[in-house]
Amino acid sequence: MNKNKIYYGVIIRSLFTCFLLIMAGLINAQQVVSGIHYYTGNPVEVTIDNGKIIDIKETDQPAGKDPVYISPGFFDNQVNGFAGISFAFGDSDLDSEGVEKATSELWKFGVTTYLPTLTTNSMDVLIRNFSILAKAVDNKKLLGSIPGFHLEGPYINPEDGYRGAHPKRYVKLPDWNEFMKMYEAADGKIMQVTVAPEMEGGLDFITNCSNKGIVVALGHHNAPAATVEAAISRGAKIATHLGNGAANMINRHNNPFWSQLSDDRYMISIICDSFHLLPEEIRVFYKVKGVNNTIITSDVTSYAALEPGEYKTETGETIELTKEGMLRYPAQNVLYGSASPITKGVGHVMKVTGCSLAEAVQMASTNPSKLYGLDDRGELLPGRRADLILFTLDDYKVNIKKTFVNGVLVYQAK
């Protein structure tokens, strides 16, 4: 056979294989995405190749009447579920297809990285759900959107108010050996644990987690200032949804807020859905902690996008989704997580604090990426993952137009 025919045949087959891989999203052809840089405010062209940003170039393209901004995708560190899929409950649709569904729905709201969050439940449910998630996260269809998980509870304060909507019968004292069973079921991918440091064994538990490189958050607690200081000294890094997970009536001096706000070593996450915190609370938290030590989170649940009404949880509690979008737990007159994705928080924090778009994106993307040591994302820079979102702003409402994850266009608004 003619050697030239063999040579050209190999080339043709190789090109055809590359074409199929590109169509399947496994290899990304070089592409250019244009928009208004979220930080500089200048029009730019972002060149993507093989899932990474390789160049950012300013252009003379005018912004137009309704500018389309480009920024790194949002990183939500507290996603209890989404679009009817729960990560926390026992009798739910949690399987590989359910994780795919929740992830693809989150992409529509600009979330390119998130931590599925498991809340207080039985050990059987927690171990089972961590096992399911651990197997699902390596699915190539998820494009690396799930780097790990967040365990919120069961090692929290059992008192009403501080416990929030976590079922009391499953709240318990920190137990390292028990936690390691969950950690192993999660294939070592638990990246954050929320704990009440005042509980017996809480401080030693924090030390153990910190030594393993797990981000320790304080939440659903009523720890005195000395205990909060000790927890931070032992490695606690962030407050879980500060201002929430607390009793409605607290002491004006001795409460869990001042100690967490006053320590400069410590970050906070806040839910900015217009229900969890008053505007003045957000303003004060933001002024005290500043843009570098604040993270916007959603605490969104599987009830997001459902019709208003009353719902029974799988642990027997009755919750209400109001027509305004508030998700509440009437039995304790507290909120039951959120029904609003992080896009609402990004717009709302700008509205109530006067912070810039650049600062809002930093709190929703850059800061969490740094907290969890994921230096491959969270910024619009050459060499970073091409996790990008294009969006408009309409009266502080973030409208996602396109979402790219690892260089793949995964969502485009109609």
Can you offer a commentary on this structure?
The protein is an alpha/beta fold and 414 residues long. It has two domains: 75 residues, Urease, subunit C, domain 1 (Roll); 297 residues, TIM Barrel (Alpha-Beta Barrel), CATH 3.20.20.140. Helix content is 29%, strand content 25%. An eight-stranded parallel β-sheet has the order 5-8-9-10-11-12-13-14. A seven-stranded mixed β-sheet has the order 3-2-1-4-19-20-21. It has a four-stranded antiparallel β-sheet with strand order 15-16-17-18, with no helix packed on it. Helix 5 links the parallel strand 10 and strand 11. Helix 6 crosses helix 7. It is globular and about 60 Å long. The protein starts with a helix and ends with a strand. 48% of the residues are buried. The mean pLDDT is 91.
Per CATH, the superfamily of the largest domain is Metal-dependent hydrolases
Q: What is the radius of gyration computed over CA atoms, rounded to a whole number of angstroms?
A: 22 Å
Poorly predicted runs are none
Overall mean pLDDT stands at: 91
The main sheet comes to:
8 strands, parallel
What name is given to the CATH topology of the largest domain? Answer: TIM Barrel
Q: What percent of residues are in strands?
A: 25-35%
The structural domain count equals 2
* Record field, number of beta strands: 21
User: Briefly, what CATH class of the largest domain?
Assistant: Alpha Beta
Identify the strand order in the major beta sheet. Answer: 5-8-9-10-11-12-13-14
Label the overall shape. globular
